[in-house]
């Protein structure tokens, strides 16, 4: 037949390549593997297991899929990129494209009025929180953030109501705060709140909180139950008082230069999935909070539930609310009190 083994293999190989090429040309549903056109980082300050990071990762996966691989968002959790002040500086400089931050924390150094959502003992429940932040107050704050040069997504992510933990005592009345060394985030509002309650607040970045509690640099700290659990603070604390003293959330911020480099269609897809995931994450946190007290009790934390009206009265008498109204301004305070009722 005149065909040896070598010529047969060469001919067959060529035919296979030709068939594959023909198939690729004629079958648009077969995609070639390629690197993302845009690869952006997002930094957070909580562990990977926190609902915040779980939902961001889900959004990132959906964004990559809907943009046909053009847009990849990589999640860096648990302060891998530094503490909040470091990541916020990176965001503003363009070294970090996305960052989630509390309005009362690092963001307030640039947009002081963004901290109003964290006024102590202002909100009584989640209904009030999201009525305000999905409504007029939230729209007003997003406008201020945008004017400061940052991109902000519509929906704020939930970090929960904050509770006080301690290594040596329960907080049952305002008098129990007297002289307590308590860790707070680096934000004016936290310092003002706990000084008004006669405590001794110390600003420490979250990535140093565990060691500060372990070495007794401070007696206690205040974070939501989800954070207490995922960061294992129950290992270095004995008591948890359900003060609900402050609601805290995360604004999803973007560097404007990096954002403007993206095509409008890609930006729309990103916003759609991030805002949808924010709403899902709120539900996750609410469901977790319903079970976390029992979980943390099983890990050794002793709980109590003080009368929060006592603390609000203390803040009124100390002039805390009058001071905050003067700081934030009449317009912002009016938007807050539309939801919370009169605080001053």
Features:
globular, 13 helices, 47% helix, alpha/beta, 18% strand, 344 residues, ten-stranded mixed sheet, D-Maltodextrin-Binding Protein, domain 2
Task: Characterise the protein shown here.
It is a single chain. Strands 1, 2, 3, 4, 5, 6, 7, 8, 9 and 10 form a 10-stranded mixed beta sheet that branches. This protein is an alpha/beta fold and 344 residues long. Helix 2 runs antiparallel to helix 10. 42% of the residues are buried. The protein contains 13 helices and 10 strands. It has helices at residues 5-26, 51-66, 84-93, 126-133, 136-147, 188-196, 209-214, 225-230, 256-260, 264-298, 308-318, 320-328, 330-340; strands at residues 38-43, 71-76, 98-102, 150-152, 157-166, 181-184, 200-203, 220-223, 239-255, 302-304.
Task: Write a brief structural summary.
The chain has 344 residues and is of the alpha/beta class. The chain is 47% helix and 18% strand.
For this structure, the CATH topology is D-Maltodextrin-Binding Protein, domain 2
CATH architecture: 3-Layer(aba) Sandwich
CATH superfamily: Bacterial extracellular solute-binding protein, family 7
Can you count the beta strands?
Answer: 10
Percent helix: 40-55%
Tally of discrete structural domains = 1
- Average pLDDT, rounded to a whole number, is 91
What is the CA-atom radius of gyration, in angstroms? Answer: 25 Å
User: What is the succession of H and E elements?
Assistant: HEHEHEHHEEEHEHEHEHHEHHH
Number of helices: 13
**What is the name of the CATH class?**
Alpha Beta
N-to-C span: 102 Å
Percent of residues in β-strands: 15-25%
Unreliable residue stretches: 5-32
């Amino acid at each position: 037949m005149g065909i040896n083994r070598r010529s047969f293999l060469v001919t067959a190989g060529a035919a296979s390549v030709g068939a594959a090429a023909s198939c690729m040309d004629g079958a648009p549903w077969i995609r070639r593997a390629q690197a993302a056109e845009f690869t952006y980082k997002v930094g957070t300050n909580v562990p990977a297991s926190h609902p915040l990071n779980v939902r961001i990762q889900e959004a990132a996966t959906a964004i990559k899929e809907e943009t046909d691989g053009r847009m990849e968002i990589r999640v860096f959790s648990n302060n891998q990129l530094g503490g909040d002040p470091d990541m916020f500086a990176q965001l503003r400089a363009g070294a970090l494209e996305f960052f989630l931050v509390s309005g009362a924390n690092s963001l307030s150094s640039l947009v002081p009025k963004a901290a109003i959502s964290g006024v102590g003992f202002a909100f009584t429940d989640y209904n009030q929180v999201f009525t305000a932040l999905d409504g007029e107050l939230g729209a007003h704050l997003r406008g201020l953030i945008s004017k400061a040069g940052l991109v902000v997504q519509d929906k704020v992510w939930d970090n929960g109501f904050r509770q006080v933990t301690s290594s040596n005592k329960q907080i049952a009345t305002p008098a129990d705060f007297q002289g307590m060394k308590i860790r707070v985030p680096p934000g004016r509002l936290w310092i003002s709140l706990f000084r008004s309650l006669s405590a001794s607040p110390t600003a420490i970045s979250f990535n140093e909180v565990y060691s500060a509690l372990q070495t007794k640099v401070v007696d206690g700290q205040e974070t939501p139950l989800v954070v207490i659990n995922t960061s294992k603070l129950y290992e270095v604390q004995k008591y948890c008082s359900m003060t609900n003293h402050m609601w805290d959330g995360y604004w999803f911020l973007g560097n404007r230069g990096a954002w403007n480099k993206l095509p409008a269609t890609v930006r729309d897809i990103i916003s759609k999935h991030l805002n949808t995931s924010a709403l899902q994450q709120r539900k996750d946190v609410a469901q977790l909070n319903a079970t976390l007290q029992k979980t943390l009790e099983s890990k050794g934390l002793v709980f109590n539930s003080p009368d929060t009206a006592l603390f609000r009265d203390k803040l009124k008498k100390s002039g805390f609310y009058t001071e905050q109204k003067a700081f934030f301004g009449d317009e912002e305070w009016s938007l807050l009190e539309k939801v919370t009722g009169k605080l001053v």
